[in-house]
């Protein structure tokens, strides 16, 4: 498929108003997306676990306007007008206008809320952009008199979400989603996320992710700036090859359920992501002393208890603690007795693998 395939030819319906609501989860990458080309095309393929409880819930109401000269929308977070969100949404609308030509013909009221605190340091862009893309797709579905096929609906929604925030295209489905072309993964695309198509061992069923909130503040360097620093990065090409190799290795790990091999790949990916930040120009560090303290304690606990606990990181200081469902009781005791002390105000979020976005009304 190409981007052209997402430009609609004509619509058979022309509603004057309506509303749609979706919930969409966050996701945590196992092989990381870090580095992109123009039009939000990733430099390497990535794969993520879809989360279950960390979600954005968005309601979009639309009504026809008289003039079609510019975008018209208002955004609310938890019922309060949020003008600070407008520039990001304006950029998103500009990027997707060619694919949703009705955008300037309507006024949109976007009401959104997250199941996790806005100031938790958890990026809401993946869940937020995917929920918004899905609401817009439900509007387009009405314009086609509900004739759009479900598989195309999801592909296009993921395609649009990617243009809002790259990782958002992996949040629509579950439980494992691949984004970016990979020679061994059938159907993988740079344009949208696809459900991982091969066998996944029962060891990964209900895999747990406890997110330790080490630093809830605003990030010093945004992901977009970080991605751009991969241009002319001295290790970029080798890193992009490594991501392809790690995804190849994960195919057999997902099939065999080899958790020791899983841990090596996932932790190496997390540390490589941060190594890329530390070796870009300008360089930066998003981990905090407590991030390292937690990692060391996870390693010690794993060695002492023959546990399959491991960690991953996103572009921040928080630690995602990953472990099989069978270890939930012991690991939660470890987290609450030893690791919570390194979280800001003792805060953490218990999540697990989930199955993607849901249509609400
Ligand atoms: C480290 O998707 O937030 O979480 O496309 O610029 O919006 P933009 O970036 P974003 O980058 C996420 C980077 C990451 C790794 C990942 O999720 O794969």
Quick one: overall form? globular
Overall pLDDT score = 96
| Largest sheet: number of strands, sense, barrel closure | 8 strands, mixed
The ligands bound in this entry are: ligand DP6
Give the helix/strand layout.
Blueprint: E1 17-31, E2 36-37, E3 41-42, E4 46-64, E5 72-77, E6 80-81, H1 86-96, E7 106-114, H2 125-143, H3 150-164, E8 176-179, E9 193-195, E10 208-212, H4 223-228, H5 236-256, H6 259-278, H7 289-305, E11 310-313, E12 319-323, H8 328-339, E13 348-352, E14 358-359
Give a summary of the structure in a few sentences.
The protein is an alpha+beta fold.
Structure write-up:
This protein is α+β, with helices and mostly antiparallel strands and about 350 residues long. It folds into 2 domains: about 5-195, Ribosomal Protein S5, domain 2, CATH 3.30.230.10; about 200-350, Alpha-Beta Plaits (2-Layer Sandwich). About 35% of the residues lie in helices and about 25% in strands. It contains 8 helices and 14 strands. The protein has helices at about 85-95, 125-145, 150-165, 225-230, 235-255, 260-280, 290-305, 330-340, and strands at about 15-30, 35, 40, 45-65, 70-75, 80, 105-115, 175-180, 195, 210, 310-315, 320-325, 350, 360. Strands 1, 4, 5, 6, 7, 8, 9 and 14 form an 8-stranded mixed beta sheet that branches. It has a 4-stranded antiparallel beta sheet with strand order 11-12-10-13. Strands 2-3 form a two-stranded antiparallel ribbon. α2 (about 125-145) crosses α3 and α5 packs antiparallel against α6 (about 260-280). About 45% of the residues are buried. The site of ligand DP6 has 17 residues, from α4.
């Amino acid at each position: 498929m190409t981007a052209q395939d997402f430009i609609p030819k004509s619509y058979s319906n022309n509603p004057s108003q309506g509303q749609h609501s979706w919930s969409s989860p966050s996701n945590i990458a196992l092989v990381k997306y870090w580095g992109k080309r123009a039009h939000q095309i990733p430099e390497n393929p990535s794969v993520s676990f879809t989360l279950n409880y960390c979600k954005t819930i968005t309601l979009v109401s639309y009504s026809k306007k008289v003039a079609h000269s510019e975008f018209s929308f208002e955004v609310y977070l938890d019922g309060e007008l949020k003008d600070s969100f407008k520039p990001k949404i304006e950029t998103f609308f500009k990027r997707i206008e060619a694919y949703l030509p009705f955008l300037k013909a309507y006024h949109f009221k976007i009401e959104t809320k997250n199941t996790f605190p806005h100031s938790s340091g958890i990026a809401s862009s993946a869940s937020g952009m995917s929920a918004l893309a899905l609401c817009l797709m439900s509007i387009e579905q009405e314009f086609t008199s509900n004739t759009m096929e479900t598989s195309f609906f999801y592909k296009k929604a993921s395609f649009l979400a990617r243009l809002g925030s790259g990782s958002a295209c992996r949040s629509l489905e579950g439980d494992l989603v691949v984004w970016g072309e990979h020679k061994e993964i059938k159907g993988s695309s740079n344009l949208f996320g696809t459900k991982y198509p091969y066998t996944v061992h029962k060891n990964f069923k209900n895999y747990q992710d406890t997110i330790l909130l080490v630093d809830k503040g605003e990030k010093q360097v945004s992901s977009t700036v970080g991605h751009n620093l991969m241009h002319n990065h001295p290790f970029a090409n080798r890193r992009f090859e490594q991501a392809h190799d790690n995804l190849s290795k994960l195919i057999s790990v997902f099939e065999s359920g080899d958790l020791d091999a899983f841990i090596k790949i996932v932790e190496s990916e997390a540390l490589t992501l941060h190594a890329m930040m530390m070796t870009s120009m300008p360089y930066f560090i998003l981990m905090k002393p407590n991030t390292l303290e937690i990692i060391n304690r996870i390693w010690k606990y794993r060695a002492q208890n023959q546990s399959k606990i491991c960690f991953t990181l996103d572009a921040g200081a928080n630690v995602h603690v990953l472990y099989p469902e069978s270890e939930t009781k012991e690991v939660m005791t470890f987290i609450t007795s030893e690791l919570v002390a390194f979280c800001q105000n003792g805060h953490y979020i218990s999540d697990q693998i989930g199955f993607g976005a849901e249509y609400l009304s």
